Structure formats: C-alpha cells, structure tokens
Amino acid sequence: MTRLVTAHLFHAVNGVVESPDQWQFGHFGPEEGEMMGRTLANVTDVVIGRVLWQEWSEFWPAAAEGDPFAAFVNPVRKHVVSSTLGDDLGWNSTRIDGDPLAHVRALREGDGGDIAVVGGVETVRSLFLGGVVDRLTLTTHPVVGAGRRLFGDDVPVTRLELLESTATSAGNVITTYGLRTAD
C-alpha cells in the first residue's frame, strides 16, 4: 500500500508562503487547529529542508511540555534535504542522501503512516511539481504578504484538481489540491 504524501502551507492572498509568522496576524481558529490535528495524527515521517530543519531543531526540542506541535514534531522521523549537513544529525533526523524525489518515492513505498512535507518553500515546490506530493493544502489568510511565493513566474502551467475547500471562522480559506492527472 502506498503511503499518502501531503504538504500544508500558510498562504497569503498574493501567493506568499515565506515567514507566515510575519503576516498571518493571529488568524488561526479552531477549524485550522482541527484540520492540522487530523492531518498530523496519521504522519510518521516528515520531509524538511535544511534551513527550516536548523531553525526547528534549535527551538522545538526545548519547547514547553504540553505544546501539541512539539508533541508531534519531536518524536516524528525527519528526513532532511541537505547537501551540506553531516550524517549525524540527532533529533530523530536523517539526511537525505541523493535525489529527494527518489528518496520520497522509496519512502512512500515503505512501512509507516502518512508523510508530510513541511518545508521550506523550495522543498515543497520541487516535490509537488515532481509529482510525489499527493495533497497540497493551502491555508489562505486574508492578507497580502511579503516574501517568497510557492510558485513563481518560472513555473510552467500546471493543472491542479481541487480536492477540498472550506472557509473558517477566522476568515481563512483552506483548500486542498492534487496534481491533475488528465485534462
């Protein structure tokens, strides 16, 4: 059985996904928490880029006991996309040796629960456009943000299929897409 590969990003109306803590202004309500809880409950592995891994590995291991995200992220198996980090990473982490697309393809055929691609921007973009992310969820906040967008002008036209959509009491719209397989 093939494992489900997902990615979820906070998203500004103008497509910005970088540094959402700078622009989401507390627009996180109960529906967002429920959705994230449901999604993460089945995840046993995460794929993460080097920069985000370095930020999180400095913060989350010391996070307050009882924090729900810390309870998820600290024990989960982490697969780090990096050509510069060594092999002895700690924090239940393994450096991806070689092609990240091939690594995720092999990972999805192995044992375990779902696989979440948690960032950064380049990692999510390349794995999604490479066809290994089954579901891309965007929580779009009612704000115009500053920073990098998930898909820039250099991305070819790529058809997506809307799988789910809901508006939340916090004013966000949560949409989930898959790559469209047929026109």
How does this structure look, described?
This protein has 183 residues and is α/β, with parallel strands linked by helices. It has one domain: Dihydrofolate Reductase, subunit A. It is 25% helix and 28% strand. The chain has five helices and eight strands; from the N terminus they run E-H-E-H-H-E-E-H-E-H-E-E-E. The protein has helices at 30-41, 50-59, 68-73, 100-108, 121-129; strands spanning 5-12, 43-49, 77-81, 93-95, 114-119, 135-141, 160-167, 173-179. The chain has an eight-stranded mixed sheet with strand order 4-3-2-5-1-6-8-7, with helices on both faces. Strand 7 (160-167) and strand 8 (173-179) form a beta hairpin. The radius of gyration is 16 Å and the shape is globular.
Describe the SSE topology:
Layout: E1 5-12, H1 30-41, E2 43-49, H2 50-59, H3 68-73, E3 77-81, E4 93-95, H4 100-108, E5 114-119, H5 121-129, E6 135-141, E7 160-167, E8 173-179
Parallel strand pairs: 1-5, 1-6, 2-3, 2-5, 3-4
Antiparallel strand pairs: 6-8, 7-8
What number of domains? 1
* Number of strand segments: 8
Helix and strand succession?
Answer: EHEHHEEHEHEEE
Q: Which runs of at least 5 residues are low in confidence (pLDDT < 50)?
A: none
Which structural class should the secondary elements be placed in?
Answer: alpha/beta
Shape label: globular
**Strand share of the residues?**
25-35%
Rg is: 16 Å
Intertermini distance: 27 Å
Remind me, CATH topology?
Dihydrofolate Reductase, subunit A
CATH architecture term? 3-Layer(aba) Sandwich
Highest-level CATH class: Alpha Beta
How much helicity do the residues have?
A: 25-40%
Please state how the strands of the largest beta sheet are arranged side by side: 4-3-2-5-1-6-8-7
